[in-house]
Amino acid sequence: MIIRMNGEELEVEQGATLLQIIKKKRFLTDRIVVEHNNEIISAERFADIVVADSDKIEILSFVGGG
Amino acid sequence: MEDILEIGGKRLTSRFFVGTGKFAFKPLIRQVLEASGAQVVTVALRRVDPESEDENVLDHIPGGCVLMPNTSGARNAQEAVRIARLARVLGCGNWIKIEVISDNKYLLPDNDETIKATEILAKEGFVVLPYMSPDLMSARRLVDAGAAAVMPLGSPIGSNRGIKTKELVAILIDEIEIPVILDAGIGKPSEAAEAMEMGCSAVLVNTAIAISSDPVKTSMAFSLAVQAGRLAYLNDHPVRANLAEASSPLTGFLRDE
Fold this sequence. Notes:
The structure holds two protein chains of two kinds.
Chain A: E1 2-5, E2 8-11, H1 18-24, E3 33-36, E4 39-41, E5 56-64
Parallel strand pairs in A: 1-5
Antiparallel strand pairs in A: 1-2, 3-4, 3-5
Chain B: E1 5-7, E2 10-12, E3 16-19, H1 27-36, E4 40-47, E5 66-69, H2 77-89, E6 95-98, H3 111-123, E7 127-132, H4 136-145, E8 151-152, H5 166-175, E9 181-183, H6 189-197, E10 202-205, H7 207-210, H8 215-234
Parallel strand pairs in B: 3-4, 3-10, 4-5, 6-7, 7-8, 9-10
Antiparallel strand pairs in B: 1-2
Helix pairs in contact in B: 1-8, 2-3, 3-4, 6-8
């Protein structure tokens, strides 16, 4: 199925959790913040959220800025 | 008696805030912060790039620093609020620099949207430091909205043009009871000293340090300038005169009569 991650289409397996998607992309869970369908998801819940077709996720982290 | 700047429950001994954007090498950030003694550091929040091998900016910020995420990218209050809420989840404190900009040419902040975002976020317990155009009425509204300080610009972000807004910032310093922190456009240490000497509570510098040939030495120069300006402000200002007044005695001259 296709979801949107950070504005781009991403193909994921049926039943994939947020944690599985994050791990597959090799993101560090303590350095990212995640929004799933416009809801902020705390790290403890990454394994609980199963994504569905057309879901929208945003994964952000701090970068240099003024 | 120690000269402490108290904001949002933090007692700061350094009035020099540093931005972490535009550094060519991230390890320079830690060196700059350690050399300058800066305690408050800004960062931005962006979508992660899975292709990037970059280390995280947090890895280069000493643990004792106060992190101040900005809401850069926000074009209105709603976007700023969204970014702030996301930033707070990363667990680096509740300070937020509100930056709402929809002008891509001068990057001037939208004071109206900034006021709206300040009100919402202050109610949610954020320590809000709004970046603003130095307008007194907007500053008063920011105070009423719960801002912990106001951050008027000196000149456009990244322009290094100095304190072009000096007269308006001076009005804020006279009329606003919360700290006034000059942010944006400071290009030289002498300008940082000038800001402090006129009564700013702190200054924030990013570009002038990050793009200099030696960011560490430049940050030290800025830090010393901030201290010098602050010391000058805390002491009497001499009266300015149109005519000269001799500094040495006017009697006992060695002269052939």
